[in-house]
Amino acid sequence: MRRPTLAIRWFAMSLALALLAGCATPGTTPDDGRSADQWQAQQERLEALDTWILIGKAGLRTSRETTSANLDWSQHPHYYRMLISGPFGSGRNLLEGREGRFTLTNAEGRFEASSPESLMQQQLGWSLPVSSLSDWIRGLPADHSDYRLERDERGFPQQLEQDGWQIVYRDWAQVESLWLPRRLSMEYDDLSVTLVVTEWRPAIDD
């Protein structure tokens, strides 16, 4: 695997995140208010959640450097859009996926491929599991591969291992009637990504 380059770093940000009608800003008390039965009670609704806006900040650390970026992620059943902006790259990097077509647009041009992973491999020389992000950001394992999941004392996800990545859920926020991850860290080899969600806007169907 090639070491992350300047062009790769923004993509790691989108991973760390990828993003998510209602608007809420996460906030937690010292014990964050969660109870032991809440995760199981919301499971079905959480799995059905497929539309949201997520705004946050992502931090990237490698063996060579540390940097950060802003993330604006819009997710819909058949389309997603991740806008990455910050001190790395040219300032604006856009990843879009729609019905089997995926594009990456930055200062170097616009690129297209049949999957986000192959797009990254072709343009950057390596790939990240972009297809898993919409599950991981909801606290769920992706359904396409084996995984190992540990839960905390309240039954909420605490650590998830899948596709060589280790995801640790460090903080939660109650957004309307759902508990959603507010802060998580993800590691793969020497790449470490931390995502802090400053605004969750899930489209919740009650």
Automatic annotation (TrEMBL):
<keyword id="KW-0449">Lipoprotein</keyword>
<keyword id="KW-0813">Transport</keyword>
<keyword id="KW-0143">Chaperone</keyword>
<keyword id="KW-0998">Cell outer membrane</keyword>
<keyword id="KW-0472">Membrane</keyword>
<feature type="signal peptide">
    <location>
        <begin position="1"/>
        <end position="21"/>
    </location>
</feature>
<keyword id="KW-0732">Signal</keyword>
<keyword id="KW-0564">Palmitate</keyword>
<comment type="similarity">
    <text>Belongs to the LolB family.</text>
</comment>
<dbReference type="Pfam" id="PF03550">
    <property type="entry name" value="LolB"/>
</dbReference>
<protein>
    <recommendedName>
        <fullName>Outer-membrane lipoprotein LolB</fullName>
    </recommendedName>
</protein>
<keyword id="KW-0653">Protein transport</keyword>
<comment type="subunit">
    <text>Monomer.</text>
</comment>
<dbReference type="InterPro" id="IPR004565">
    <property type="entry name" value="OM_lipoprot_LolB"/>
</dbReference>
<comment type="function">
    <text>Plays a critical role in the incorporation of lipoproteins in the outer membrane after they are released by the LolA protein.</text>
</comment>
<dbReference type="InterPro" id="IPR029046">
    <property type="entry name" value="LolA/LolB/LppX"/>
</dbReference>
